[in-house]
Each structure stands twice: as C-alpha cells, then as structure tokens.
Amino acid sequence: MSKNKDQRARSWTFPLYPESAPENWREILDEYHVPWVESPLHDKDINPDGELKKAHWHIVLFFDGKKSFEQIKEITDALNAPIPQKTANPKGLVRYLIHMDNPEKYQYKREEIVCHCGADIDEYFALSSSSRRVVLREVMEFIKDSEIDNYADFIGYCLDYEEWDWFDIATNHNTLAINKLLDAIYQKHNPKAEKAEIFSDKVSAAKEMFRKGVKQHEIADTLGVTVRTVRNYLKK
Question: Which residues form the Plasmid replication protein origin binding domain (predicted)?
C-alpha cells in the first residue's frame, strides 16, 4: 500500500488584494510571529490580452517546520485572501516578487520588498560564481569605457542609478581587481613622469625667484604651495 504524498510545506504563498484585505492586515500577519515577506504592490502587471491586472501583493510565509494547507488557509481566511499555494522553490518565488528573472514583465524595485518578523531574503539575490564573472566584466568594461579613475565616483554611480549587482561586486567580491583598474586609469591620466616634471619645474622656479630676491612667502603664493614647501625646494 503506497503512502499518501506529503502535502505539507515550509514555505507558502498567496496573493492579497487591497480592496478585500482588512486595513490592519499586516498587523494580523505579524501576530502569527512567522517570518513573512511582502512584495511591492503589483499595480503594473499586464494580462496576455494587454489588460491591466488588479493590483495585488504577493505574500510569502516561511516556517521552521512543515505546515498543512488547512493550517495556512486559516491565515488566508483571516485576510480575505485567495487560497494559499505551497512552494518548493523559495528562491524563485522571492525573486518573482520583483519579476527579477522575468524581464518581459514589469520590473519592480528590490528595495520595495518588505521583510517582516525576521525574514531574511538576501541569500536569494546572491549572484552565482558565473553570474559574478559576467557582472565583473560589465563593471570593468564600464569603468574602462568611461575612464573612471576614482572608486568613490564609481560607487556613487552605482547608488545613483541603482546598479545593485555592480555595487555588490565592487564592495563584497572584487574590490581589489576594480581598484587596480581604477588606479591604472588614474596613472594613465596622471603619469608619474608628468608629476616629476611639474615638481622639477616648481623647484627651479622657486630657486630662480629666490635668486632674484623674491621673498619666500611671495614665492609660496606664486607657486601655490606653503612657505615650508618653498624652504624644502630651496634645499634641493
């Protein structure tokens, strides 16, 4: 005699519609003390026929142990929500909250996902090794093509334009490689030979002005350096 298939699961999901949900639906869910995640309000989803779908949230519940359909339906009934569905792929489901892997759909913002009761979803957005290599190549090409030579400028770009994968690569994974490229571009823009030439010219100019009787503070003002630096120049 075969055993019945286990219909329980540790993670469940259901949609929730603003017009039918209680005003305090978030507080109701919080009272179960179960980690849960709220998607951005999906108000730009389109049906295959081009019609705008009803606005809705996607809710994901995470349990330490398996829960039955009946147990979860008690929760959805309290929220006036449609019947729940179990999920065997929490990662795919969480990423679907913003259509991350569905570029043909409207792309919602990751920062608009709200985690409740200790839910942690960062691992579901972590890049794989192959994905990191692809993103690193994108970063390197962008830095090279844009001739960015400053780490702060690049991080600022990531923040301003919400390039979160680039930001992750630059701060958590390949900081050394990126800094080496930035430094190489900086050296290209500011060659040492040019710096040495500028330094030599300033020393010569300081000595020439001093020989002509120009006071040290006037030399400093002319060259845009301190009097202490002028004194060092004159020792050369």
Answer: 5-122
Q: DSSP label at 9?
A: E
Considering the domain boundaries, does residue 194 fall inside one?
A: no
Per the domain annotation, does 222 fall within a domain? yes
**Please, what is the end-to-end C-alpha distance for the chain in angstroms?**
98
Radius of gyration (C-alpha) of the chain in whole angstroms: 30
Residues 209 and 174 in one domain: no
The arrangement of strands across the sheet holding 9-16 comes to 85-86, 9-16, 57-67, 36-38, 114-116
From first to last of its 236 residues, the chain has per-residue pLDDT tens of: 344 566 889 999 999 999 999 999 999 999 999 999 999 999 999 998 889 999 999 999 999 999 999 999 999 999 999 999 999 888 889 999 999 889 899 999 988 999 999 999 888 887 777 788 888 998 998 998 888 989 999 999 889 888 888 898 898 887 888 999 999 998 888 876 566 667 788 889 999 999 999 999 999 899 888 887 888 788 76
> Do residue 133 and residue 121 come from a single domain?
no
Residue that the structure tokens 């040019």 belong to:
194
Q: Are strands 57-67 and 114-116 parallel, antiparallel or unpaired?
A: unpaired
Hey, what amino acid is at 75? I
Evaluate whether residue 152 is within a structural domain: yes
135 and 68 in a common domain:
no
- Print the domain residue range for 209: 200-235
Tokens of 63: 């349990």
* 59, 29 Cβ separation under 8 angstroms: yes
